[in-house]
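Good morning,

Both structures are done.
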Amino acid sequence: MTKTVIGLYDDLADAQRAIQELLTNGFIGDEINVVANKATGDTTAASTQGAIIGSLAELTSVTIPGIGPTVAAGPLFSSRAAEKDGTRTNLLDVFLNAGVPWERSHYYAEGIRRGGALVIVRPPDHMAVRAVQIIHHYGPVDVDQRARQWRENGWRGFDAEASSYSKADIERERQVTEARA
């Protein structure tokens, strides 16, 4: 049975470091997926991400309802996962097809909406523990705690019809998150 190891990062650079370490430790591109909100506006990180992800798979720009423009790579985000027009994908369906439970799928989608970067690893069973160690080493978000914070402010679940976060919205979100930490 294939395990799924997931890390949501507030900082794209942390996601990049996790991906690089996964690759250095023998994980292959077909086992690693990443999706990040493009609205972060960090062009240096985006180009670095492109270089790192280039070894995973083709970096794809997709529009995700409720999130807006994103960058993604890996088999979960290949053209097979995209809709017929090749530019839109239903993120919750991608997560559910990867075996992510419904509630957590909403957490991860909302985390990306709010500017996060998500790394999804589908390692062979004998490498699952190492994947977890690497993902945790780079400080992923505690999604349960984050979802509680969102709920305190009225969040009820990921809404694909919601407005996308702008760069300014993402920056405000990060300031609020940092203030609570």
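Second structure follows.
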Amino acid sequence: MTGGTGTTQLSGVNTYTGNTTAGTGSTLSLTSAGEIRFDLANAGVGNQILGAGTANFAGRFRLDVADVTTPAGSWTLVNVGTLTETFDAGTFGLAFLSGPTFTNVGGGLYTSGDWSFTTGTGVLTLVPEPSTWALFGGGLLALIIFRRRRALVASRDALA
């Protein structure tokens, strides 16, 4: 998206969801009134901000997670390994497309339910609460017991 030595400033609600590249010598600036949309899918698939330039984030990352159907995963939103990036702790934030915003809990960590984003890694993560895993495990155990009982009844009936 950017190249050369110029600055690209995003100051409105941007609905473009492809990769955004800040090329060497260029600056990508998301103002406090601006938004960048991320369209996420399973297996870490989604668009991201990358390149070897500079990126300054004061606005909001808007997350479209409608295509995420797995209970856990991670997505690189900002490639912090190649970019020179800054996140304005006073104005930067994240929000779901049609839902709640994330809470800035400090230290570059933003959370919303089972979701978290860390500015130090540029990675968005979905990790279910332990109670969610317990509920899933309990349901799986009940299914196994049900099938085992059905198999025992069927084999008993076959012997009779």
